[in-house]
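As a warm-up, study this chain.
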Amino acid sequence: MTQHEAIYVLAEALRIFRQIYIRMGPIQIDEDLFGFTAEGKLKVWCNPNFADNTPARKILTEGEDKRSEAYMAEKIIDIVEENTINRRLPNQFNKLFNNLAYLDFNMAQKAVAEYVSTLTDESLPDHVDLDHIGPHG
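Now compare it with the structure written out below.
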């Protein structure tokens, strides 16, 4: 997917997984939890079978080191970046992200919003052109 499509996916994934985190606690994030509608809108769920109405993802417990909101946010960013053309998010976003004092969903969402506010000649897409989606975005 293009870099701007990746920012759309990142913004939506952070928003949705934040809601899952609030309701269920931290979960393991993997690429198979990300999907797209026929219109290219992002959908995520804590079960790789989107038709299943029950979570299948292991809920991470307090004793595990991957239990934090920071882990989830960083994993989301890594997955989106890996599926972006040239496997890189826009440099300006990466600078904002790398300058965060700490990482949680709110801070990651603020970095996305700040990046989007710098776009003067382009607007952020509200979907992904599915022709851009392949084995690695």
